Structures are given as C-alpha cells and as structure tokens.
Amino acid sequence: MTQRPMIELKDVHKYYGDYHALRGINADIKAGEFFSLLGPSGCGKTTLLRTIAGFEDITSGVVMIDAKHMEGVPANKRPTNMVFQSYAIFPHLTVAQNVGFGLRRDPRSQAEKDKAVAEALEMVGLKGFGARAAHALSGGQRQRVALARALILKPKVLLLDEPLSALDKKLRENMQVELIKLQRQVGITFILVTHDQEEALVMSDRIAVMFEGEIAQLDDPETLYRLPKSRKVADFIGHMNFLPAAIHGEANGEIEVEVLGLGRCHISDKQAPGAVSGGEASIGFRPETLTILYEGQAATDRETTGKVEEVVYYGDMTYYDVKLDGVADPVRISMRNVPGRPVLERGASTRVAWSASALVLFR
C-alpha cells in the first residue's frame, strides 16, 4: 500500500429528487488499500460505491480515480470493476466462460485468453474448475468465480458490494481470510461495502463509518474500536457499555470524572475524542475491558461489586450481564473460558476489576 490516493472524493453530494442520499462526502482512498464502507441499511454506502463505479451520477462534487476526473466518464471506461452481492453468474455457461466473459472483445488470441482465464482461476483457488457447469457450484465457489471474472480485466480498483452476505457463517469467515490474502497478492485497491461490523474490522486497512449519507468517522479498525469519536459510532461498532458520568475538571492533560457504579477517577484527554466541558456526560467501555474476579484473585487496578443477571455461554467465551451496585442497567462483561475457570450462575454476587485507561468519554 502506498500513500498515493487512488480515489479522491471531494464534497460529493447525491440527490434523488428531494432525498439527500450523500451529504458532502470527503475521503482519500490509498492505492493498494483494503477500504471498507460500513453502516446500517440506507446510510448511503452502496450509493457511494456506485458513484465511484460510474453507475450513479453525482449531483455535485468531485470523484477522481488515479488522479483523473471521472465527470462524464461512463462505468465501462473507468479503471474499476465490481463484484455484486448476487455474483451475477451466468448459469448456462461454464466456469471458464463466465470468467472470460469480459474478454470477448479483447484483441488477444484465444490461446492468450485461455491462459488468462486459467491464471485468474488459479488466483482464486479454482484451478481445474474451468470446464465445470456454473450451476453446479457452491456459494463460495460462485463467489470466487465472480472475483476471478472481475480481476481478469486487471482493474485498478475492485468494488465489492456485500459479496459475502449470502454465505453461511463458517464459509463467510473463511472467505474473509481468502479475500485479504487475494488483495495482498494482486496489490490493487479493494473497496468493500458491508453492514457487518466484525467483517469490516477483520478485513480493512481503514473503515469509513456512515450514517444518513455522511461519514461519521474514518479511521483504522483499532482506532475505531478503541476510540470512537461519538457515542453513535461506539454503539454501532461492536458492543459498548455506557454509564452516566459527571465531569469535575480538566488540568494537565487529564480529566476528572465521576462514573456511576465505578466512582471517581482521572482519564487522559486522549480518551475524550469530542469536546470536553463541565457537566453531564457518559462513559463507554468494551466488555473485554472489565474482568470478573474469582475467589483468591486481587484486582491489579480498581474494583467494584455487582450481581450476575444473565449468562450466555459461547464455548470459547462467556458473556455476563452484571448489575453493578448503584446502577439500574446491567453492563456486559466477556470472559474467556480457560481451563479451570468456572462459569458463574445467574444471581451470583461478584467482584469486578476495571481500569480508568479503558474508559472513553462522550458528550
């Protein structure tokens, strides 16, 4: 991945009649980057992908690909290709015919085209599948054929519109890893549209979180997860607990807060992505940043008490809903099920360890 922008979006607006679908989108997407557009249904992520592809005209703003303005450039003339959610595989054609479909008007000889098809199939792990009927493929294989068909044209940007949404959980997770490897192998820019937060975190170099036609935050996955800039982003990316808090002061790069159920502590101003002023606020923290203390264990930092209200066992993890003393709503705590660690029952009283360094302040 280089620092050179492959795609530049400058104040992009899109209207459908009176409906404002894209509201001043600004973003640079680097060459060789795996970039994701993440958000709930209707937030504008697919519309933005289609404006990059040229399937939608923008109302105003600038879309540039590889330093060239795309105004008036039709989709078939842009250095992009798209893998659709439905894959759009032709069932009456063989795998090789599907993959080579875009080469019909290519001036190369048939032998050269056949070689290109074979190379594309090997790239996506389907070597030897060329003669197979497309309708006889599994969902994962169809997805790979769609990828090969898009990559054979050697685009500078590959656009992926929720390509894994039709797969079952295990195959989806396997294909996530395969897509990451494939992107590194071919070295081109991938832009993925997804509403699956975990998928975006796993696959992306950077993620743009979108709500109502706007980018709420654009960051690398760890920053998005650890330091979301707003409560809305925090609530959308994974699970985050929230507790009421009061701000008592700020000095020397630290903020003094009193958190319901946890008490008074100091946090770094880096743990407050938004503007800080005195008064009411809320504190957020992830389930894995709290620790249930078992008999004989001592807290390494701070400790509070509570009662287990719900237990959800996932095999490798157990999720507890714990009602902290003095707090109306329970908080979620995740604990890894290591050998010798018991699973608590509902109603059990427990001690909970926490650290001020894991807290994020929201206004």
Task: Provide the CATH topology of the largest domain.
Answer: Rossmann fold
CATH architecture of the largest domain: 3-Layer(aba) Sandwich
Distance between the termini: 36 Å
Backbone shape:
globular
Parts with pLDDT < 50 across at least 5 consecutive residues: none
- CATH homologous superfamily descriptor of the largest domain: P-loop containing nucleotide triphosphate hydrolases
Task: Provide a brief overview of the structure.
The chain is of the alpha+beta class and 363 residues long. It has helices at 45-53, 95-99, 110-123, 139-151, 169-186, 197-203, 221-226, 231-236, and strands spanning 5-16, 19-30, 34-38, 60-65, 68-69, 80-83, 157-161, 189-194, 206-211, 214-219, 241-251, 254-259, 263-268, 279-285, 291-293, 302-313, 317-324, 331-336, 349-354, 360-362. It is built from eight helices and 20 strands.
Output the keywords.
5-stranded antiparallel beta sheet; 6-stranded mixed beta sheet; 363 residues; 8 helices; alpha+beta; single chain; globular; Rossmann fold; 20 strands; OB fold (Dihydrolipoamide Acetyltransferase, E2P)
